[in-house]
TrEMBL record:
It catalyses: L-seryl-[protein] + ATP = 3-O-(5'-adenylyl)-L-seryl-[protein] + diphosphate; L-threonyl-[protein] + ATP = 3-O-(5'-adenylyl)-L-threonyl-[protein] + diphosphate; L-tyrosyl-[protein] + UTP = O-(5'-uridylyl)-L-tyrosyl-[protein] + diphosphate; L-seryl-[protein] + UTP = O-(5'-uridylyl)-L-seryl-[protein] + diphosphate. ATP binds at residues 136, 138-139, 158, 170-171, 236, 243, 333. Its cofactor is Mg(2+); Mn(2+). It comes from Amphritea opalescens. This is Protein nucleotidyltransferase YdiU. The active site is at residue 323. It is an enzyme of class 2 (transferase). Nucleotidyltransferase involved in the post-translational modification of proteins. It can catalyze the addition of adenosine monophosphate (AMP) or uridine monophosphate (UMP) to a protein, resulting in modifications known as AMPylation and UMPylation.
Length: 572
């Protein structure tokens, strides 16, 4: 061991022995294990899990793992030396083999059950047993919790093999979806949007699985063939992976009195959530009632901020079910996501997602998830009508808080001190009628040009030719009005521009940048992934002219409507 325990906070993690000194498995140590599970986690077949907060599971390593990438930013934040990512022990652990870890690192991981609500309606149909007891982490296996530099982190393998919740799935994630998630998480973090983080990405040199996918050039909604893809494991990191759906599962069981400890298990998971995600804002000494009320207030605050941030950067989650909604209020599950290019309020890249999860409907979808969160907390206050009324008030205040956050976000994108509804609505109408690139438009606007001509680079159609419908005139009038509002501000134009450049990114992770990166990676060439990592983790920086020419671009016309690039049905 190169470092001493007493130096924990300044520890540089160079080996697994160093990592071992930081381990603190709070989930396994404070919550209930499934009483029917084997301790060694060797049980991988789908089955019902009736009680307990987690199932001990050993991950299934991918065969012949090869290093693709790690997040240098996260490594540096955690004090991990870069060389660790390519060391044998680390590769072994984070490609799913935890059988040889030095103590106190554990040789068994854990998977959790959760319930599913879609847009505020409870479902059990997705559970193979039609009870809800077989739904949860089907291919995500947590392998470590650690206290690092004053923060608590959980590390979870995605694609780490089958768990009792795998529902007949193979427990794997393919290279394509792993590359997408790996890049997007760190991009979102750099955009200033709360998110789970990417630690590492390893691919198997020999193991492949089949997934439905699109033929080259297909414009169909759904994939038209099965393809064989390499499997990969990406490791994601967050203070916890507790989801709204998880609280719901325990609430449903308490409601149905499914077993004698159901109510106690609900309370335990809620208190655990507070410990893991809200310890800095919810005092341990408060009563349970006070804790629950504060939790609801804080989650509402985080969730509304998160959604405003998503819209600010053009992010569409695509499948914002309660089981994809982190109870800590950050972005989770980068499968069905996409970044809006051509502005469309109904933008939805995932063909299975439906309009209710489309780009500008995300505030409404979030409110449904918040409603399910509220529903899950209610049993804990059942005997206290005053507290229930207070909780209801918090629930009912969601829409106003969401609206306030959205208005302040739009004002900041436009460089204004206060939201101007008339100006905003006219811009929305114009952006729907004139095809505009969302990222480029706001970035160009951030330079506060003197005439509207400078914004043309963001338009997908040419501006200034015919103006039969008076659209050009309306754009000019809108621009003049906006400029006069900017000019009436006390701050200098430079200062306003500076602020706008901080909220309107220059680079966003467009799908057509990612497609060649995962295609080349499947042939063993990882350079494009690493280039995207560099570019997309500094999305507000101008970067070089070469990078600008390559990545500050509208979507080429030939890519519009292409299956697997403009839309996709398989995110796993
Ligand atoms: N290949 C697979 N094998 C087993 N289970 C799977 C597989 N793909 C998805 N699942 C499970 O199906 C459910 C819904 O899938 P979804 O695409 O939301 O999840 P995901 O992308 O795997 O998960 P996460 O939300 O953990 O990022 C999840 O519970 C997930 O674990
Ligand atoms: Mg999911």
């Amino acid at each position: 061991m190169k470092n001493q325990l007493s130096q924990k906070n300044s520890l540089t993690v160079e080996t697994l022995d160093d990592l071992a000194t930081l381990a603190n498995y709070s989930f396994m140590d404070t919550l209930n294990a499934d009483p029917d599970a084997t301790d060694n986690g060797a049980d991988h077949d789908p089955r019902q899990v009736f009680s307990g907060h987690y199932v001990p599971v050993s991950p299934t390593p991918i065969k012949d793992p090869e290093y693709i990438a790690h997040s240098k930013d996260l490594f540096s934040e955690l004090g991990f030396s870069d060389s660790l990512a390519q060391s044998n022990g680390f590769i072994q652990m984070f490609s799913g083999d935890i059988t040889e870890l030095p103590a106190p690192l554990r040789k068994v991981g854990w998977a959790t059950g959760y319930a599913l609500s879609i847009y505020g309606t409870e479902y059990i149909q997705q559970c193979p047993f039609q009870t809800g007891n077989g739904y949860g982490d089907g291919r995500a296996v947590s392998v470590l919790e650690a206290d690092i530099k004053g923060k608590h982190w959980e590390m979870q393998l995605k694609g780490g093999g089958r768990t009792p919740y795998c529902r007949g799935g193979d427990g794997r994630a393919v290279l394509r979806s792993s590359v997408r998630e790996f890049l997007a998480q760190e991009h979102m973090h750099a955009l200033g949007v709360p998110t789970s983080r990417s630690l590492s990405l390893y691919v198997s040199k020999t193991e492949k699985v089949k997934r439905p996918w699109y033929s080259e050039g297909s414009r169909r909604q759904d994939p038209d063939r099965m393809i064989s893809e390499p499997v990969a494991i990406s490791t994601r990191v967050a203070p916890s992976f507790l989801r709204v759906g998880q609280l719901e599962l325990f609430c449903r069981r308490a409601r149905q009195q499914a077993h004698p400890d159901a109510m106690a298990e609900l309370e335990m998971i809620v208190l655990h959530l507070i410990d893991r995600e809200y310890a800095d804002v919810i005092d341990k000494r408060l009563s349970i009632v006070e804790k629950v009320l504060l939790l609801a207030t804080m989650f509402r605050d985080r969730l509304t901020s998160l959604i405003a941030n998503w819209i600010r950067v053009g992010y569409c989650q695509g499948n914002f079910n309660s089981d994809n909604c982190a109870a800590g209020g950050f972005t989770l599950d980068y499968g069905p996501f996409g970044f809006c290019e051509l502005f469309d309020p109904h933008y939805q890249p995932w063909t299975g997602g439906g309009q209710h999860f489309s780009f500008l409907n995300q505030p409404a979808a979030a409110e449904r998830n918040f409603h399910m969160f509220w529903t899950a907390l209610r049993p804990l206050l059942a005997s206290n009508q005053v507290a229930l009324d207070q909780l209801e008030e918090i629930r009912n205040g969601f829409a106003d808080e969401m609206q306030a956050k959205l208005e302040s976000m739009w004002a900041s994108k436009l460089g204004l001190e206060t939201f101007n509804g008339t100006l905003f609505r006219e811009l929305g109408a114009l952006m729907i009628q004139t095809p505009v690139d969302y990222t480029l438009f706001f970035r160009e606007l951030s330079h506060i040009p003197d005439d509207i001509g400078k914004l043309q680079i963001s338009f997908y159609t040419s501006f200034g030719s015919k103006d039969a419908d008076g659209l050009n005139q309306r754009w000019i009038a809108w621009f003049d009005e906006w400029r006069s509002l900017i000019d009436s501000r006390a701050d200098s134009r430079e200062a306003i521009s500076e602020q706008m450049l901080q909220v309107n990114p220059k680079y966003s992770l467009r799908e057509w940048f990612v497609v060649p990166a995962y295609q080349q990676a499947a042939m063993g060439d990882y350079r494009l992934i690493r280039e995207l990592q560099t570019v997309m983790t500094q999305p507000y920086a101008e970067q070089s002219q070469e990078i600008e020419a390559k990545y500050y671009r509208k979507k080429p016309p030939e890519f519009h409507g292409l299956g697997g690039l403009s839309h996709y049905s398989c995110s796993s």
